[in-house]
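Quick log. Single chain, no ligands specified.
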Amino acid sequence: MRHAGTALVLSIGSIAAGLAFPLSPNPQPPTSSAVPAFEVASIKPNKSGDDRAYSSIQPGGRLSATNVTLRDLILAAYRFKFSPAQIVGGPSWMTSEHFDVDAKAASGTNATDAQIPEMLRALLLERFKLIVHEGIREAPLFALMMARPDGMLGSQLTKTAAGDCVDPGPPPVAGARPAVDPKGPQPCGRILYAPGAWTARGVTTDQIAKALEAFVGRTVSNRTGLAGPFNVALQFTADIGVPLQPDSSINPDRVTGSQSSIFTALREQLGLKLESQKDQIPVLVIDRAERPTED
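-> predicted structure:
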């Protein structure tokens, strides 16, 4: 199984907290001329068979990604406004074939973090011939809700107190945020992942819902009514198996085996539950995508 957090590594900022954005019925246009583009880009197939993916954003507008799929790149290019379950259509190889990408802006370019996704969209248009449009469809989702009738929280979901975390400061002008020292002060608003464990301080329930999407294979809508911020310490079975498919009608309360572990952990440790529902959700429709020509 590919690491559930692969796409998140490519994120330029913290996990998106909402899905409010304009919808366009037309294919996305090329990037604006006001935004710098990658001057040089190498895209090669990765046939290592490794289940791990790596990526980094370096100062000056350089993107390096190893063993990523086209879907990983699309998610990063849209700043994770969409979960994997919200990517509709596209060729079968979009999630099965892996690539190494090394792209850099022209020398002297001071590309900001906010510009990197648009630069990546332009690169996908040029090299993968990617054409997409945004829309709305009815689809299964999970509603994140309170699990207990009395509204009590689990012991591993607690209100953030003063001094529990440190302000991470504004996003850097270029490059990714520095790595977090697990033994040092934890920045507010970031979820740290380890096999079978999450820790976070100063996060909202919107952020928790968004983070869950990579593990359950569906959009997760926050309907807890909790304001936060919260500290989280969640432990579950590290090997959660294949995520539920977006069109699955399975009831998470009745799932057995390793797939149920994260559902059980939410209920027992956080006092939250995921309820299967249907609703209108934003989607990103893949109209066209081609394999890139090897450099």
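The radius of gyration is 19 Å.
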